[in-house]
Every structure is written in C-alpha cells, then in structure tokens.
Amino acid sequence: MARGRPQDPDKQLATKQALCQAARELLELKPYRSITIRELAHHAGTQSAMVSYYFGSKEGLFIELLEQSGNRRQQKMMMVAQQVLAQPNQALTLLVDNLIELMASEPWVVKLLQDEILSQESKLRDGFLSAIPQRLKTALSALLGQLQQQGILRADLNLDFTVATLMSNILFPMLTEPLMSHVLGIQRNTLRSEAWKQHLTQVLTQGLSPAGAAQ
Amino acid sequence: MARGRPQDPDKQLATKQALCQAARELLELKPYRSITIRELAHHAGTQSAMVSYYFGSKEGLFIELLEQSGNRRQQKMMMVAQQVLAQPNQALTLLVDNLIELMASEPWVVKLLQDEILSQESKLRDGFLSAIPQRLKTALSALLGQLQQQGILRADLNLDFTVATLMSNILFPMLTEPLMSHVLGIQRNTLRSEAWKQHLTQVLTQGLSPAGAAQ
C-alpha cells in the first residue's frame, strides 16, 4: 500500500475531493449498492487502493459524503433560523422556500434515502440518519419552539409531530416522483415553482379551509 | 401442463386464493424481487406450475393482488365519500381518519411502494400506479371538488396539489418509518393514534398558525 500513497498534502486533498465528487456523480446514475470501488477510482482518475487508504471502505467514502452534506445543511439551517426570527410574520413562507431549496439541492441525498434507507437495512442507515435528518430535526425543533413561544405557531402543537408535518409536505412529493408525475402531473420542476411554494405555505399557514372557518 | 391442472372450479378458486394469500404474506417478510415462484407455491401448498397456469407469471400474480386491493380501496373510498358529503362540516376529520386506516390497512402495499416503485424502474410500476394511486386520485379529486363547490374547502385550491398534500401528510410518515422512529420517536402505532389524527386534522383544517392569524 505504501508505494502508491501520495505524499503531497495538496494532492492528497485533491484526490479525496475527486473521490467524493465521483461518488456524488455516480449516485445520480446508479444505486449505491451497484457502485464499485473500481468505478469510483476510475471516475476520479485515481487507483482503487486510494478508496480504502482515505476512507477505509466504499461505505466510509459515502459516510464522509453524508457528513459533508450534513454540515452544509446545518450551516444553511442556522442562516434560515436567523432570517425567520428576524421576520417572524413571514416564518412559514421563509421555511417553505428554504426547506424546498435545501431538500431539492442535492438529488443524490433523496435517491440514497429511497434506495438504501427506506427499502432495506442498509449499512449506511445510521450514518445517514445522524448526518442529515437528525441534525435537521434538532435545528427545526429549536426554531419551531421559539416561534411557538412568540405566538407565531399554535401553542398546542406537538413539536415532533410538526417537524414530521414539515418533512411530509416538502419531502414526500420529491421522494415519490414517479407517483407525482404519472398520477398527478406534478413534475420535479413543479416542486420548485412559485405556485407550489405558495400552495404549501397557505396549507401550513391556514390549512385547506376558507379563512375563518372552523371544524 | 394439462396433467396437474385442477378441474373442480371450487378447487381452482381455492388455489388462486391461496397463492394470493401466500404472496401477501411473503411480501411482509421479504422484497418482491426476492420472492420465488417455488416459494409462492410451497407457501400456498400447491405446485410451481400453478403460478403460471393461473397468473401467467410471478408478476401477473402480484398485479392481480394489486387489482384486488385497488378494487377494495375504490369501494371503501365510495363509502367514505358518501359519509363525508353527509357530514361536510366534519370533512377533514373523516378524511384523515379514513385515509389513515386505508393506507395503514395493508402494510405490504407500502412496502411494495418503497421497494419497487420508488427505488427502481420495476415491471410492476405501471400496474401499481393504475391499480392504487390512480384510482385514489380519481376518487379524491371528485370528492374534493364537491367540497370546494360547497365552500368547505378554499376556492383557490389546486385540486392536484391538494391530493398531493393529503397523500404527503398521511403517507409520508408510513413510508419513512425508520426516519420517523429513529429521528422523531414516532412509531408505527403512533400513526394510528388519536393524537396523531387530531394533529393532522388540525393542520389540514387551520394550518400551524393560531386561529385567526394571517400571513
């Protein structure tokens, strides 16, 4: 192993980044379980041995990818929270817009959720859950709790249920793309349109009933 | 093939039903693609040749299963629609309760959606979509349109978006069970609890904001 190991730190970083980039690109073409170490190395222009040298295993490389994405998302969520708390009367509009962008920005994360987390007991499951949804849950719960204290959200809301509701409304249509497009004519780009964002904001703000109606 | 073919119509029906029952039971244990014709026949107490005799193929047997479920659901939705139109002021409560029961009643349908429809181009996709969500969409759109005309639902709602919203809120938590349980502590039985049904009804009726608030 020692022979092919690159010594130059810049080159090491470049190789690691090329492997991460290759992993992201290959995930858009095929499922995680079909991607081989050989393909990853070839796609990144390096040798297969570099995958285990830098990441321990193929799994380790993808966990690293998830951690990087989790960090970016966490930073983004901190900015969103600041923005929302600065304009609490626009809270749900801002949350819908930003969560849609956040969840749609990396289609490979949604694919991994479909392929590895929902349909089987994958080795990636724990790493996925702690890197992405667990951190989103922590950030959202804190923000929703503050909005609840300010009277922007109903006092009787269960916060875990409310996080589930936000995820349901925003993520379900992205996750069930064949169902949305074939059955409802709602395409991937519809889910980033103003009409869809406005629909979700209104549902989350006032529900489906006319203003002032009560059940 | 002709030799083993049962001639008695009652026995024929019993064999077909046993194979359908075996298919449902095996789906709760393993993914569609891992189920073999041999296992289906063994589980149903018949010979492998009966699968192709009655259903043409393994795929044909599962399509039949989906059609049967689609028929039951369609009948159920007709009853739900009658009930809702008889008590329009309880429309969203009744819809939430009944849609939760409908979607939770056959866990194998949710598993099939996860395993075959969302994560790959399965041969079952078209059969699945036309048997289950397409018919649900037709029934729901008609009902929601009537409720809209009666002023129970907002006049500005896009009906396709509204069907997507109902499916999102009810089906997403069932579909993402590992995420819900590990990250939010929301278990499968929580999703049939009164607290959860009440949460969803309130969200769909008045949103997340306090009554009377506008954004």
Blueprint of the fold:
2 copies of one chain form a homodimer.
Chain A: H1 9-29, H2 37-44, H3 49-55, H4 58-86, H5 91-104, H6 107-118, H7 125-131, H8 133-149, H9 159-175, H10 177-184, H11 194-206
Helix pairs in contact in A: 1-2, 1-4, 1-6, 3-4, 4-5, 4-8, 5-9, 5-11, 8-9
Task: Provide an overview of this structure.
Two copies of one chain form a homodimer. With 215 residues, chain A is mainly α. Chain A has two domains: 8-56, Orthogonal Bundle (Arc Repressor Mutant, subunit A); 63-206, Orthogonal Bundle (Tetracycline Repressor, domain 2). The first copy, chain A, is 71% helix and 0% strand. In chain A, helix 3 packs across helix 4 (58-86). The first copy, chain A, starts with 8 loop residues before the first helix and ends in a 9-residue tail after the last helix. The interface between A and B is large, with 67 and 67 residues.
